[in-house]
Amino acid sequence: MERRPQREHEVELPIGYVDADGVVHRTAVLRKMTGRDEAIMADKRHRHNGARMITELLGSCLVRLGTIEAPGTAVARAMYSADRHYLLMKLRQVTFGPEMQATYSCPTCHEANSVVEDLDELETVMLAEGELPEDVTVRLEDGYVDRGGQVHDLMVFRHPTGADEEKVATAARENAARGRDVLMVRCLKSLGDLPQARVEGLGTSIFGELTLGDRALIDGKLNNGGPGLKLRREIACAQCGRRFTTSLDLSGFLASS
User: Fold this and answer.
1) Are 44 and 89 part of one and the same domain?
2) Do the beta carbons of residue 86 and residue 227 sit within 8 Å?
3) Quick check: is 256 in a domain?
4) Percent of the chain whose pLDDT exceeds 70
5) Residue 105 lies in a domain
6) Where in the sequence is the domain holding 158, given as residue range(s)?
7) Where does the pLDDT of residue 171 fall: very low under 50, low under 70, confident under 90, or very high at 90 and above?
8) Helix or strand or coil: residue 174?
9) Which of 26, 173, 195, 211 could make an S-S bridge to 142, C-beta 3.0–4.6 Å?
10) DSSP symbols for 240-252
C-alpha cells in the first residue's frame, strides 16, 4: 500500500488560547508550509513588521486549534507570544525537519562558529493541564523612584500577545531598547503602590529610569521565566575555547538545511 506523506501535524501549546467563553484550546494542528505561505513571507508589506508576518503565516498554516476550525489571523494575533513562537518553531520543523544551520560569533575572538542545531532538543516549559498563565512578578533590586522619593520595587506584567508584538514592531525596528520599553509598558499591570492611571501616564519613561541591572531582571523574567521555548544556547568557541551564552540564531529559520 502506498504511503501518503503526512502534511498535518498535531502539537500541544505551552499555554493555550483562551476564547471569549474562557475555554482553553491547547491542541493545535499545523500543516506544512506551501508556496502560498512563502509568498506571505516575501510580502513587502511585512518588511517593517515581522510580527504581522508571523500572524499571517500562522493564520494560514493553523488548520485547527482545539475545537476551532481554521482559526485564521484573528486568533493567531490574540495568542500568547510564547505559543506563537512555539508554533513557528514547530512549523519550521514539520516543513524542513529538526536540523537548522546556525552561526554564533565569539564575543572574545569574533570567530564565527557554525553549528547544526537540533530543534527537537530545545527545552520547552509547558503549563499543566487546566492551568492558566499567572502574571509575571518581578522584584527589582534598585526600583523605580517616583517624584516624591518613594521607591517602588515590585512590577507585575501580563504575558505579551501577538497584538502587542505587532504594535511595538516599528519602534523595535528603529531602536531595539525602545521597542522593549514599549512592549513592557503595554504589558505592565502594576508598579508598587502607584495608581494605575499614574503608571499609564508615565509610560516608557518608567523603564528609562530603571538601572540596567533591574532591566536585566525584567528581561530575564519575561523571556526565560515562564512557559514556552527556552532559546538560550551555550557555545564553545572552536578558535579560542571560550564558552559563552547567547540566543538561538534564527537567521536561517525558514530555509532548508
Assistant:
1) yes
2) no
3) no
4) 95
5) yes
6) 136-226
7) confident
8) helix
9) 211
10) T--EEEEEPP-TT
Whether the CB-CB separation of 69 and 96 falls below 8 Å is answered with: no
Report yes or no on 154 lying in a domain: yes
- Residues 117 and 176 occupy one common structural domain: no
Asked, for residue 2, whether it belongs to a domain, the answer is no
Among 39, 36, 41, 38, CA closest to 52 = 41
Total domains in the chain come to 2
* CA distances (Å), origin 221, targets 51, 135, 138, 162, 186: 21, 11, 7, 19, 16
> Taking the model in full, what pTM does it have?
0.87
Q: What is the pLDDT, as a whole number, of residue 255?
A: 67
What is the C-alpha to C-alpha distance for residues 184 and 180, in angstroms, rounded to an integer? 6
Same domain, 146 and 81: no
Say which amino acid occupies 40.
I
Pick 8 or 71 by higher pLDDT.
71
Q: What is the pLDDT of residues 40-65, one digit of tens each?
A: 877 777 667 888 989 999 999 999 99
